[in-house]
Amino acid sequence: MEDYLKRVLEETTKKNCSEPEFLQAVGEVLCSISPVVKKHETEYEKTAFIERLVEPERIISFRVPWTDDNGQVHVNRGFRVQFNGSIGPYKGGLRFHPSVNQSIMKFLAFEQVFKNALTGLPIGGGKGGSDFNPKGKSDAEIMRFCQSFMNELQKYIGHDIDVPAGDIGVGAREIGYLFGQYRKIRNTYEAGVLTGKGLEYGGSLARTEATGYGLIYFMREMLKANGKDLSGKTIVISGSGNVAIYACQKAQEYGAKVVAMSDSNGVVYDKDGIKLGIIKKIKEEQRLRIKEYIKEVPTAEYIDSEGKDYSPIWDIKADIALPCATQNEINLQAAKALVANGVFAVGEGANMPTSMEAINYFLNNNILVAPAKAANAGGVATSALEMSQNSMRYFWTFEEVDKKLNNIMVNIFNSCQAAAKEYGLGTNYVAGANIAAFRKIAKAMRAQGII
Ligand code: NDP
User: Does the active-site annotation cover 317?
Assistant: First the structure.
């Protein structure tokens, strides 16, 4: 790494020493872009370019009081990190999960800047959320929480300012309550202020499917470039939420066999192939634990993940692994288990699901890695298509949106591959994605002066 980048990383580490996830995300990017920065080192240093790249434009943190069904008041912390708006309005999801803190918000927003640049669409990067735990809450409690959250968030967002969407714990139901409150407070039908909306009030067809489908489109391209394909391959997918479910659906359409899925409590292993209809019923309709699957498919096995160093899903023999749950779910031990079991490709559906050591282990063992910033960009890309449809006051058919998504994922893969090739990085698409995104952000930032 260049001396200048080393100094920035040291400074960033000192300033943000209690934010490990953020530092991990910054560390990975700075390592990758080193050969690009080298070409302009003097100029970048003089204009504190990388210092500006790693410092969010704005962090908003606020109190979210809400009342439960028994009349008890609770207080959660809300966040919105508006990281970089040089390419377009800030864009990125909202996460409701007890693990949410400033480090996680900043890492997600930082990654989002790069991901959004890769889509080729005019969107900057942001992220938000709260340490609120939606699990076990009634509909009325979720609604009151969303309304209180929006009472504050509405001051900082708008269709040309910042456009939030869903993420972990924030699906169609939450987006509906958030949109309703925004509309009530602002007295305007500003459809493009949130994406992931219901189809009846400005949502886009194929947005629900987009991240999972996009992941598989990227995987298809990556495999094709390396003389392989999805047909007949065995796949394990962590998570059973939005990304996992639609990745499973598309992988099955391409003839792959998905043998395991999971949630935060455990894993279901179905050697005959996961019956996705049952998973959808349990997770999307009933909002129950994945363990229920074995009641409906007694030949399947349930493995508890309580107290384990990594999810037991990574011990299951497969050709392809798709981490689609959360950050750092594949540590070095899990990576070793996957490689020992014959995995040849990993596709990151979740954001930063693989630790740095694990990524390096995969790359050193010639495993193809589809990096999150590129491989899961289909969701935000389709959100941007939702914004376009809202602006036009029109909508496209499912097939039209899916076709645009497919093209976007092909273009993203091509730019990762081209950047990796240009810098002699072979099949290191992780570095390729960081370099391709950085070059675009850098051009926009340089054009706009020191701000
Ligand atoms: P969902 O809330 O729909 O699903 C998340 C899934 O992951 C659930 O099965 C959940 O289990 C599991 N999970 C969550 N946290 C943990 C944890 N700490 N340990 C183990 N399992 C966990 O979220 P999404 O599918 O939307 O998001 C999944 C990932 O994909 C996230 O990293 C998100 O940032 C990323 N992503 C999502 C996009 C989207 O469009 N939705 C776009 C791009 C990235 P349980 O049911 O037990 O909670």
Answer: no
Q: Cβ distance 89 to 116 under 8 Å? A: no
pLDDT for the residue numbered 1? 75
What local confidence, expressed as pLDDT, does residue 276 receive? 98
Mutation test residue for ligand 1: of 112, 132, 243, the one with most atoms within 8 Å of CB: 243
CA distances from 438 to 131, 198, 215, 374 (A): 30, 33, 21, 12
Structure tokens at 53: 């790249």
SS3 assignment, position 73: strand
Identify the segments of the chain with pLDDT beneath 50.
none
Q: Which two tokens stand for residue 210?
A: 């987009």
CB 123 within 8 A of CB 384: yes
Amino acid at 164: P
Query: Are 337 and 308 a contacting pair, CB within 8 Å?
Result: no
Rounded to whole angstroms, the Cα distance separating 109 from 93 reads 9
Dist. CA 208 → ligand 1 center (Å): 13
Residues 6 or more apart from 203 whose CB is under 8 A from it? 172, 195, 196, 197, 386
Q: Are 409 and 373 in contact (CB under 8 A)?
A: no
d(CA 221, CA 159): 33
CA of 324 to the centre of ligand 1 (A): 6
pLDDT at 335: 98
